Prior knowledge:
With 190 residues, the chain is mainly α. The chain has helices at 7-19, 23-45, 48-64, 76-107, 121-134, 138-147, 152-159, 163-189.
Amino acid sequence: MHVHDDPDVESAELAVRLVGGDREALAEMYRRWSPLVHTIALRALGTREDAEDVVQQVFVAAWRGRATLRPDRGSPAAWLVGITKHRVADVRTQRYRAHRNLQALASEAVTEPTSTHDSDWAERLLLVHELERMGDPRATVLRMAFIEDRTHDDIARMLQMPLGTVKSHVRRGLLELRDRLKEVERVASD
């Protein structure tokens, strides 16, 4: 039996090459184990987009953290699974924060827009994603109110809509967002 016919030996060699800074070893690891990483992330997070993001993050983290890989202490696959679990936990934490912030936003009186802080990028990205799924004109009204921080009067003027219609879109849109975030939370807790 040729030494390269043994998958454990081959995996160990890949690990040694990666630790040594061989980009081709990373590419080979990606070809070999990205389906495993994707499956774990998809089962944990429930959306293909999140799973694909996690796959990219895992392999970037693997390259940056290659010095932490110990070929003599376990397989590269197990090491990648560990990184995947951390990335999945990060996404769940971001979802929880976004959910909590939007729940607070939705429970406030919907008379004045709430400004978001620059430090809330993860929450804002999730909000933008959910708004894109919502469709117009409601998505545009909510985007203007909560991302661009415009008043209801300003939105009504810019979109040439009655003020009551703008307020109705904001109110109903927040309820729709709240329901969607409950679904995100349910999927994340499965």
